[in-house]
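Appendix B: complex inputs.
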Amino acid sequence: MDLIIKNLGIESGGKPIVFLNVLDADELGVSASGRLQINSGRSLTVIVNIASVTVQKGYLGISEEVQKILKLEQDSVVDVQISPFPKSLQFIRNKLNGKKLTDKEIHEIVNGVVNGNLNENEIAAFVTSLHIQGLSLDEATSLSSSMVMTGKQLVLNSPQIVDKHSIGGVPGDKTTLLVVPIIAASGLIIPKTSSRAITSAAGTADRAETLMPVDLGIEEMKEVVHKTNGCIVWGGALDLAPADDIFVKTEYSLCIDPLLLPSIMSKKKAVGATHLVVDIPTGRGAKVKTIGEADLLAKDIIELGKRLGIYCHCVLTYGEQPIGNTIGPSLEAREALEVLMKTSQVPDLFDKACHVAGSIFEITGKKNGFELARDILLSGKAEKKLREIISQQGGQSEIKPFDFVIGTNTFEYRSVNEGQVLWMDNNIMVEIARAAGAPKNKGSGIIFNKKNGDKVSKNDVLFTVYAEKSPKLSRAEQILDEKMPMGIGDKMEMLIHRVKESPVVRRSFILDR
Amino acid sequence: MDLIIKNLGIESGGKPIVFLNVLDADELGVSASGRLQINSGRSLTVIVNIASVTVQKGYLGISEEVQKILKLEQDSVVDVQISPFPKSLQFIRNKLNGKKLTDKEIHEIVNGVVNGNLNENEIAAFVTSLHIQGLSLDEATSLSSSMVMTGKQLVLNSPQIVDKHSIGGVPGDKTTLLVVPIIAASGLIIPKTSSRAITSAAGTADRAETLMPVDLGIEEMKEVVHKTNGCIVWGGALDLAPADDIFVKTEYSLCIDPLLLPSIMSKKKAVGATHLVVDIPTGRGAKVKTIGEADLLAKDIIELGKRLGIYCHCVLTYGEQPIGNTIGPSLEAREALEVLMKTSQVPDLFDKACHVAGSIFEITGKKNGFELARDILLSGKAEKKLREIISQQGGQSEIKPFDFVIGTNTFEYRSVNEGQVLWMDNNIMVEIARAAGAPKNKGSGIIFNKKNGDKVSKNDVLFTVYAEKSPKLSRAEQILDEKMPMGIGDKMEMLIHRVKESPVVRRSFILDR
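Resulting structure:
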């Protein structure tokens, strides 16, 4: 059917969608959420929306996304056909009905996701099926590979590329800001991509952004790594594993993450990682609640890595309270810088960074990794390296702790009794920091005076909330009126234990959690 | 946050959606597919799309749907807040994780679906979960009730209201066009709503539409029933169980139907049915393949009916070939009229109609239902009743068989060998009829000369394809070049058997198929 292009000038969040008059839709035999093929030079599959007023019979309303791909002129005529039933949808239905998917089938699905050939309903059904039915190691491997194959890749000419990842869930975790320079200073190559906060008070990209630009393109990233051995850039604009970005959106909206491991691995594979250490913060306040659960996850990660050619170790770390003494992008970046400059001692952050960096050293064949990491940090080489990276990414390499702009509206939260800090509630801490403006207001957040195990006297300041804007401070105070963010307990070491390769291969490998 | 209204003039298929500039979204802390509450006189929850060009910072782009509900003036200012996390989403997540839902929880979900409070992803995840996890009888009951409660209802002042439904899947099934007038002629009240074809060659509404208008409102429908005891109207515009219409769209796109029974029952309950006969066409070519499967389904229907206060029987009918000798809206309506007028004998259609109508008579306490139905049909009272209904619905009550406009482009499909018809492929027959233009071109379809068990000589015409437009006939011929629609076998009676109330209540009631 020939239709006249009408650019509606609307955006549809990356998906190529069109609006079709109900009469034309009827004639073509397509319904809402159905698929059409537009043939105009190249051919594009688009998802159909039905209109009865906006788009008149004989017209095809297109979104900015379609315009961007096909570059169609207003009032030009295109040929439109009903799209053949995508094979990928049949495969999604198979998974929905409990069948295991082959590598080829998964590749077809991932392709359909990236090309916009599958609609939102179908992607949500796929993600839901993976959550309920679980996914096998084979399927997880195929998903990782397919997500890499359908995106851009960073190609560095190096036989050994290392990386680190944290499962997340613990606030204040600025470990990456220490680990990357330690590793890069040792001569190993670490092309670190990281994310911005979605539900947390700061992502690594948010923290790093207070030191330097992080919105680099893939070629710029390559250049920085070439010159400094490392980088800390935002992964969101690099188009590495774009399918993953789409899956993550769906997972986020449903609060499930069946694709957690393929997601991590695809991003690491896309930057060419050969060695990877995954940090699994563990504890009541973290994403992974128990050591048993963390051990299972660690084994899955190690097995999946093996299949993808990434040698992995996992470190299970103490995740029952924030890492270090700060939450919020600027406060955290400043704290990391102070530890690198040795102007401040933050034992748990120091310990965690040296364990993670040390594990990276050990999986690449070095001995006494923790000591090696600690020595690089204490020697000042890590600080020097971070400043090199800042400079190469376009930041002020001479940045000093007092350069960070911190919110001037403050509120001190004091103890009403005495004792020892027994517990801290990570979720409430994040809620307070977000209410105060983090991560958007980079200078908002929390500084802790007391943490788990610390002795506390009556009326001691437990922590101080910082906000750039005073109404936001009031919102944070309001939360503190209603909720209890801290209790009393015993101090602990950071590292619970470390998982190396799993000696026994389990028979029924199910990643489903 | 105060935002300026910008009506984008686009339709979003019934769902209230808005477009928000990425900066404002960030400020509000909402992401794509998230929920906002617009407060302007009344408050409305809307689903968020993110724009960066279309909608500038400080503006709120709204769809026609939002405009229709809130009646906002261009450039007026509204207060917009992030919507609280809907409880219904928590309940969907519970189902996703295998928990059984309570009546209250299901009601909350159904409400969320109808109010537009749940986005497409979430509805797809719910439907997928129901498909994989199954639903209990309690859940099915709650779903049916909630779907009724969130829609309009037909209120007739009668202690006994009967209805019929077919599970479908067999082409050429014009049984309803005979059953409604037989029942109405007997004095029973049968307010029949029916659907249009989605994937089939004709729905009952498509067939009936060649006799009379079927797009009646609920008050008009009531009037027709009041005057004639029956009606045959399209259910799509009545707003009975609107949640069901939304679920069905999602199910259709995923080719699953976990809500099949709640869907049927909600529509019946909404018209106030007290007695219901459900036809389950059974056989290799039908939706339900085996008698065992049909029996299980029948028991579920009967149990669910019991809980909802609808007394149900099921009839399992032969579904391995089309019903009667025609497929296509006009051809089928003409055939039904001819049987009512006794100008044509169609034994399987006659048999099926009398069994279904007879079962309705028997569940309302009459004896020898089949004979009663047959007598009404043969007496001419059913024909007279249909003409009354046609007249009341605004059609030409004097319509004669030769008044139907049938496509003049025809193609005869002939036998290449001799024997007996062993089988007919329902799916291929539908594909041919649809290629020829049905259901859109009402005069397109198929007339059969031979059916299962019939003796066939070489070169006999097996069936003739009719198309209103000649290119469509060519498409149908093309399918016949590639596919084999018929084989050879033994004639059978229509009724396999009839299921009355299940004597034993099964312990683990799972509707999941």
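The longest strand of chain A covers residues 42-51.
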